[in-house]
Amino acid sequence: MNEFLVIGALLLSPLLTYVIVLLTIRPLIKRATSSFTKILMGDPYMENVWEMVSAFTRISPRIVVENSLRAAEGKIIDRPFGSPRKFLNFDGLVFSPAQLAIFPAKEDAKVEMKTVIGPLAKKPLTIDMPVLLGGMAYGLGVSEQVRIAQAWGTAVVGTACNIGEGGFLQEERERAKHLIVQYHTANWGKNADVLKQADAVEIHIGQGASAAVPSRISPEFLQGKARDILGLKPDETAVIPRRFNEWNSPNDLRKVVKELKQLTGGVPIGIKICASNRLEEDIEYGLLAGVDFISIDGGQAGTKGSAPIIQDDFGLPTIYALTRAVHYITKREMKGKVSLLIGGGIHTPGDALKALALGADAVYLGTAALWAMTHTQVVKTIPFEPPTVLAFYSGRMADQFNKEEAAYYLSNFLTSFSEEIQVAVKGLGKTNVHDVNQSDLVALDETTSKITKVPLAFDPNETAHMTGSKN
């Protein structure tokens, strides 16, 4: 009997404590709320805290904070991850499912996902899915652990990662199945030993979130191993110019492409450019130079950090750039000969498949993959720090980033990403991802339809044409 009384007391104790706390706090909350409401409803507007709400409807809290950072620092602020601006994106497109007019593929059908980058190169790059990781620079951007995790994760699923403009890590090369090396404007990373280990070389000319403006990393943010790999002096600022000073004509680019093909034994050589309104002219320079692939970064692309004005107000949205690039390459009769890679704001399997349907040969992922890698590791930083302190080379918690976990989560993420695309391909009645095309899409708004040349879903003229109506 005594045991039951003890158990009952233990069970009732928390409940009684809760009731007592509630009875005590409730009047206090009511009085505080009443007092605040009277102040809110009675104070003159110039002295009323509600003025903050009114102000934030005119100018967003983000802009207020960024302007405060400008006031505090007196210099250009670097915003990581790219622009929060709402660009026109792939949401204005949906797929038209197969059912009777076109039958879906059988549920046990195998979907071909293999993708060839640079089909006319002496040594084309063949990956197991049309999804690869965009450039993330070791030292200048992410840590060594992040780079090695990317190599591991992409190797598991048979796709490629890209070293960006940072230092070359031999361990990353050993872990990666396919590695794209960037040839850029900085003084490091151009030695023959590095370039000969590439499965493809991407000549970095511009990128979406930082356009073609120079980049400078202060010595305080670049210490230790990365500084040694880049060949920098202890107090030297890392500088990435935004043009090759020795280039003055298309012939100069052609010469570099030829030299790189000879040096590497014929791996695909491409260019990476941002989405300028002179996009067709930029592509033409690449075609005249004999490149094997062209990578285009749309305006939604991410970055380790660049000035907000470059992120928000430079470059075309990805969907504009992709459509124009496909049209021009097709017009030049180079479709299927020169591969087109697109990146910037591609976050979901749906985004990726829509880009492929519009004519891209493969898509780059950046921010989405980085978030997948950090996964539950973000609990090490939140709520007081952003997850960038884990992933960035100069991050204060970079030593707590677990590369084994990150590689595992990245491979899971890419596997899931690929399998979702395969389900969608079968739902369109096809068994090869590269057979998905513009005819599988419909547009939900006139702007998207006009840009992509994809018919509107409810265009009466189009409907009449399809049904043969003469009304």
Q: Can you characterise this structure?
A:
- This is FMN-binding glutamate synthase family protein.
- InterPro entries: Aldolase_TIM, GltB, Glu_synthdom.
- Its EC number is 1.4.-.-.
- It is a single chain.
- The protein contains 17 helices and 14 strands.
- It is of the alpha/beta class.
- The protein has 2 domains: 62 residues, no CATH class; 363 residues, TIM Barrel.
- Strand 6, helix 6 and strand 7 form a beta-alpha-beta unit.
- It is globular, with a radius of gyration of 27 Å.
- The C terminus is likely disordered.
Keyword list:
TIM Barrel, 14 strands, about 475 residues, alpha/beta, disordered C terminus
Please state roughly what percent of the residues sit in beta strands, choosing from under 5%, 5-15%, 15-25%, 25-35%, 35-45% or over 45%: 5-15%
CATH topology (fold) name of the largest domain:
TIM Barrel
Classified by CATH, the class of the largest domain is Alpha Beta
Strand order of the largest sheet: 4-13-12-11-10-7-6-5
Largest sheet: 8 strands, parallel
Which CATH architecture of the largest domain would you pick? Answer: Alpha-Beta Barrel
Specify the structural class: alpha/beta
The global form is globular
| C-alpha-based Rg, rounded | 27 Å
Low-confidence sequence ranges:
463-471
End-to-end Cα distance: 89 Å
Overall helicity: 40-55%
In CATH, the homologous superfamily of the largest domain goes by the name Aldolase class I
Mean pLDDT: 84
How many helices? The count is 17
Overall tally of structural domains: 2
**Number of strand segments:** 14
